[in-house]
Amino acid sequence: MIEEQEPLPDVPEPDEPYRRPVDAMSLPQIEAELRDLFGGAVMYLLIPIFLLSLSTTTIVATPFFVRVLPAAAIVFVGYWVLQKAYVPMLREAPETALQYLRVVSRLGGGVMSTPHERVVSLCAQRTRLKEGNPPES
Predict the structure, then answer these.
(1) Of 114, 129, 116, which is closest to residue 19 (Cα–Cα)?
(2) What local confidence, expressed as pLDDT, does residue 50 receive?
(3) Where are the annotated segments for Disordered (predicted)?
(4) Which end of the chain has fewer CB within 10 Å, C or N?
(5) 86 Cβ partners below 8 Å, 6+ apart?
(6) What is the pTM of this model?
(7) Which of 53, 115, 96, 95 is nearest to 78 (CA)?
(8) Would you say 126 and 97 are in contact if contact means Cβ atoms under 8 Å apart?
(9) What is the longest distance spanned by two Cα atoms in the chain?
(10) Which residues of the chain have pLDDT under 50?
(11) How far is C-alpha 45 from the chain's CA centre?
């Protein structure tokens, strides 16, 4: 026979952070998270690419599909180019890449569900660990 189960209590689960505190992270962990966040921030460049390509194709053609399809194609090509370029950009100029990440995070209120405050603290902790200074308590 089928047994009835007791209903689950209507108590919300505690909000526990799923990310480690920045102060407890090592340099490789910080750099891995910053690399992932920079990859997301680079993808935000697709928005102006799409708007620019849409506006230039609007000048040329008037039907909707003739305007949107070339713009979508340009976005996919831009996505491929950005995917190929993001590792060399981060490797060659990490400080410039992190500055761009901070700007995008400030303008967007965060990157990939990471608040701006965490991005800033990750960058600051990375700088402290690179310089050999102990973390602030």
Answers:
(1) 114
(2) 81
(3) 1-20
(4) N
(5) 38, 39, 42
(6) 0.68
(7) 53
(8) no
(9) 70
(10) 137
(11) 11
pLDDT tens digits, 97-127: 999 999 999 988 888 788 899 999 999 999 9
User: Which pair of tokens denotes residue 67?
Assistant: 């305007």
The single residue listed with the structure tokens 């701006």 is 116
- Transcribe the chain into DSSP letters: -PPPPPPPP--PPP---SS--GGG--HHHHHHHHHHHHHHHHHTTHHHHHHHHHHHHHHH--SHHHHHHHHHHHHHHHHHHHHHHHHHHHHH-HHHHHHHHHHHHHHHTSBTTB-HHHHHHHHHHHHHHHHTPPPP-
Q: What is the pLDDT of residue 14?
A: 56
